[in-house]
């Protein structure tokens, strides 16, 4: 057919890092790919077990997001060929929905002739996802600190940081899913003054420590009172791992995004081995099946290549 085929590779991400609720994200070398081309009729090909059961028609999130971009650009919505694949598990707290949104937006933007720059894509993705943390990390790579703009339609204010040297990530991924919606629904509508002050202090310290490579401060800086205490009821073992990880090799630990994945930072192989043994004992006690992974930070964000179909 010889039509342009856009391939976008998007990193998975973690969000919050403890206190930076909805504001701090970090990208990982664990990738989703979205291929997209204009087509006679819409065809959606989903590869692999992770994407099994998702709609393979125009109800698919990828098509919906792409169609929205064409509309926003004032262009007719075309029929699309879309092929998707992911290394990242869905509904586990590793930003799969954000990666899908970024993949579809970047691919559709390329097919539409680049009507929007990356800042505008970030704003559109944030509107779709509801918060900027995962989408910012997936789009730009590295660590992204961002917040919602004061007024609708304004650019998302953000700063991108390079991940500190020597910061290694160990994630514990339970086998059960936890949707972000469910994990947000358990949060209270109102917080006490003490808890808000606690999180402002810890989140500020976290960002400063990441910016200056002060890995020694992460254990204290990653304390949170806004979401982890409430989500712990949905994630067996979370409380013990957050409490015990710093004494068992971790520089700091947090729920990854909305969970149920738990993230620990460490420096050396010996620390990771100690952590693995600790995590095994906690998860065995709770009867939870899970896997662990070492993840390296992604620093490139969404990458585009164009071929023909
Ligand atoms: N490649 C994809 N194609 C279509 N839909 C997807 C794709 N990837 C993710 N999704 C949608 O996103 C949902 C998962 O989003 P959810 O916010 O619950 O979890 P997450 O993004 O994996 O975790 P978190 O936001 O906590 O990091 C899936 O159930 C599915 O509906
Ligand atoms: N900041 C979000 C990430 C999940 O999408 C949350 O914790 O709910």
């Amino acid at each position: 057919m010889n039509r342009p085929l856009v391939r976008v590779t998007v990193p998975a991400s973690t969000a919050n890092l403890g206190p930076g609720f909805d504001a701090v994200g970090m990208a990982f070398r664990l990738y989703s790919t979205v291929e997209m081309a204009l087509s006679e009729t819409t065809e959606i090909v989903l590869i692999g077990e992770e994407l099994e059961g998702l709609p393979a028609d125009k109800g698919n999130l990828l098509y919906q997001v792409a169609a929205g971009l064409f509309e926003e650009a004032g262009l007719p919505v075309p029929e699309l060929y879309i092929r998707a694949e992911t290394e990242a598990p869905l509904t586990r707290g590793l930003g799969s929905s954000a990666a899908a949104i970024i993949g579809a937006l970047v691919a559709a933007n390329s097919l539409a002739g680049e009507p929007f720059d990356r800042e505008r894509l970030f704003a559109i993705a944030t509107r779709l996802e509801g918060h900027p943390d995962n989408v910012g990390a997936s789009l730009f790579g590295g660590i992204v600190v961002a917040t919602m703009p004061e007024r609708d339609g304004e650019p998302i204010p953000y700063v991108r940081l390079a991940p500190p040297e020597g910061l290694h990530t160990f994630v514990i991924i339970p086998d059960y899913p936890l949707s972000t919606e469910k994990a947000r629904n358990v949060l209270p509508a109102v917080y006490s003054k003490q808890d808000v002050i606690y999180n402002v202090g810890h989140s500020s310290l976290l960002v400063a420590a990441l910016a200056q490579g002060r890995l020694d401060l992460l254990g204290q800086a990653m304390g949170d009172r806004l979401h982890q205490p409430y989500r712990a009821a949905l994630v067996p073992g979370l409380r013990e791992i957050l409490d015990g990880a710093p004494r068992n090799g971790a520089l700091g630990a947090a729920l990854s995004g909305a969970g149920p994945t738990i993230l620990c930072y460490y420096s050396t192989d010996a620390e990771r081995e100690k952590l693995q043994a600790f995590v095994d004992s906690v998860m065995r006690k709770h009867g939870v099946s899970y896997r662990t992974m070492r993840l390296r930070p992604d620093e490139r964000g969404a990458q585009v290549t164009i071929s023909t179909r």
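Residues 15, 51, 54, 60-62, 84, 86, 90-98, 100, 134, 179-180, 257-258 surround adenosine-5'-triphosphate (ligand 1) (CB under 6 Å). The mean pLDDT is 97.
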